[in-house]
Amino acid sequence: MKLRELAILTVASLVVFFWYHMAHAQNSYMPCLPTDQVKEKLKGLGEERIWRGLSARGHITEIWINKTSLKWSAVVHLPSGHSCLPDGGDHGEKITKPGA
User: Fold this and answer.
1) Domains in the chain: boundaries
2) Is the pLDDT of residue 35 over 70?
3) DSSP state of 90
4) Is the pTM of the predicted complex or chain greater than 0.70?
């Protein structure tokens, strides 16, 4: 193999390696802890549970919100006894039913 071909192969391998790790890092915001710890942390942040539902995949999803700051968190409770935070935000709005 020529030196130039080896250099191109090395660069291509590095590009694939870093692309793979960056793609997985972008989807890794899902810290999971024991459920009691997650609930205590959210309560400590002034958030309270306002909605929950049973997922077709067998877990419970909840939405927590701080009614003063409007910061919110989505929480997924797993059958394992752990809860994960797949999403959250700093702003939100209350949507009322038309005509209500």
Assistant:
1) 1-28, 31-94
2) yes
3) S
4) no
